[in-house]
Design goal:
Elements lengths: L4 E6 L3 H16 L3 E2 L8 E6 L4 H21 L5 E6 H13 L5 E3 L4 H9 L7 E3 L24 E5 L1 E2 L10 H5 L3 E2 L2 H13 L4 E5 L16 H9 L6 E4 L9 H8 L4 E6 L7 H6 L6 H14 L4 E8 L6 H14 L3 E6 L17 H24 L4 E11 L2 E6 L10 E4 L6 E11 L2 E6 L10 E2 L8
Parallel strand pairs: 1-2, 1-3, 3-4, 4-5, 5-6, 7-10, 10-11, 11-12, 12-13, 13-14, 17-19
Antiparallel strand pairs: 8-9, 15-16, 15-18, 15-20, 16-17, 18-19
Helix pairs in contact: 1-4, 7-8, 8-10, 11-12
The structure holds iron/sulfur cluster (SF4).
């Protein structure tokens, strides 16, 4: 069998990144070699995102770039496989409009991608897009191979799909209904990662707090987090994509008493007024949201709460926006993203009256982001002189880059650290300066637990 070289490009969210990783491991097990540059590949796979307009454009650009490379290589010299959410959502359109594609495969189907590679393609692209069922794919593929070093930080997808039905969201149309992995398979994957070197496990799903409610075995996130906490090694757990309607007191209690779960939670709220939460069908009120935030902050003082808001959703009035701004300023979220509404075909919101002009939506996005930049910069200054645990990911000798315990990859702040660091990993850092949510500091010889911040005045090794 000739060596077949694969170039895999993954776009979109951490869940699609997990799917890309599982696909790569599956193909590697079948003897395929992965190359870093597309020019060297025999097979190019584009693992697309199809969530909102900008990400669809980015995915189409990636496909056309691959088409150009295929045409330049000459007839029959290269294969082009398109998978992921754009393939799942627009499989037929892609088949009709981009005939240079050899095969279009729905998201998270490594088995079908392999079949597509082995099949000979003549004429129109093959299109294998199936409606996702109610059972999570075969899990053995999720285990990290024991003979390979695992990444320092790894996303672990605990479920796929979503039953929440937020009116603006296309994800249920793409990824289907909620289907949770079993507790055993998730804990098994985390153990395989941690024993192969991972020191930060990031739990992701469309709605992590709904994990297990579709399983008839009494599964719920509090139980899962409790089981993960029993894994003996030293590592961090970061929980992303919590939903305020499904965040329970038990989950908060387990997070607060955990030895692994960092003092950080990502909980997209999307809006804050009862009027907009109703229109968006978020299944929660402002008061209920506030009570979740207050319960979290009481249970974990000093934690970083991340959220995202959508501005410019149909029906949003100036009064709604002013109330949202006031709500965000009152809660001074430590980390925050603000998006303008994206009209997505097939979603109920796309048919709603009361459209907000794009310029106004952009203006609201700018005002809310500006406010966040101000209060988050002030909060960062308060960390100067404190020792906080940081995950240092890249660098050499005495200059390293990474993130503090309050920052998730790709979406939050960065930390730049001077001082001798012998290897990537979790290190205590004395913060010396701040710019917005980005920090600079010096590695210090202190042992700091993930949920503590020391001050230089505290006795060495106080924790
Ligand atoms: S919780 Fe809402 S926004 Fe998130 S994936 Fe589900 S339907 Fe979409």
């Amino acid at each position: 069998m000739p060596i077949r070289r694969v170039f895999l490009r993954t776009l979109g969210c951490p869940k699609n990144e997990v799917d890309g990783g599982v696909l790569a491991r599956h193909l590697a097990k079948m003897g395929f070699i992965f190359v870093n540059s597309p020019e060297q590949a025999d097979i190019e796979i584009v693992n697309t995102c199809g969530f909102i307009e900008p990400s669809k454009v980015e995915s189409l650009d990636a496909i056309w770039e691959a088409v150009e490379r295929k045409q330049a290589a000459g007839e029959g010299k290269r294969q082009l496989i398109v998978t992921g959410c754009l393939a799942q959502r627009y499989g037929q359109q892609l088949k009709n409009e981009i005939t240079e594609i050899d095969a279009i495969v729905g998201f998270d189907r490594p088995d079908l991608v392999l079949k597509a590679i082995d099949a000979s393609h003549t004429g129109a692209p093959a299109c294998w897009v199936e409606k996702p069922g109610r059972v999570y794919r075969d899990d053995a593929m999720s285990l990290w191979p024991a003979d390979q070093k695992a990444p320092l930080s790894a996303y672990v997808k605990v479920a796929d799909g979503c039953d929440n039905g937020c009116r603006y969201c296309a994800i249920p149309l793409i990824r289907g209904k909620l289907r949770s992995r079993s507790l055993t398979s998730i804990v098994g994957e985390i153990e395989s990662l941690v024993s192969a070197g991972t020191r930060e496990v990031i739990l992701v799903a469309q709605d992590t707090t709904s994990w297990g409610i579709d399983r008839a075995d009494g599964s719920d996130l509090a139980k899962l987090l409790g089981e993960i906490d029993r894994i003996p090694e030293e590592f961090w757990v970061r929980v992303m994509y919590a939903h305020p309607a499904f965040l329970t007191d038990q989950q908060i209690e387990v997070m607060a008493g955990s030895r692994h779960i960092v003092p950080y939670l990502d909980m997209p709220l999307q809006h804050a007024t009862d009027h907009m939460l109703r229109i968006m069908n978020r299944g929660v009120t402002r008061a209920q949201t506030q009570s979740r935030i207050d319960t979290l902050r009481r249970a974990r003082p000093g934690m970083a709460l991340r959220t995202t808001f959508i501005v410019g959703h149909p029906g949003e009035t100036e009064a709604d926006f002013e109330e949202l701004l006031a709500f965000a300023e009152e809660n001074t979220f430590e980390r925050m993203g603000v998006f303008t509404y994206s009209k997505e075909e097939g979603t109920p919101s796309a048919l709603l009256p009361g459209e907000v002009p794009v310029e106004l939506a952009l203006e609201r996005q700018a005002r809310l982001t500006e406010a966040f930049d101000q209060w988050s910069a002030d909060a960062s200054v308060d960390l100067i002189g404190k020792i906080i645990p940081c995950v240092l990911e890249s660098g050499s000798h005495d200059r390293w880059e990474g993130r503090s315990v309050y920052d998730a990859p790709e979406i939050d702040g960065q930390v730049t650290v001077m001082g001798i660091v012998d290897e990537p990993g979790i290190h205590p850092v004395l913060i010396e300066n701040a710019s917005g949510v980005d920090l600079t500091g010096r590695r210090v010889d202190y042992s700091v637990r993930p949920d503590r911040v020391a001050t230089i005045t505290e006795p060495r090794g106080a924790f």
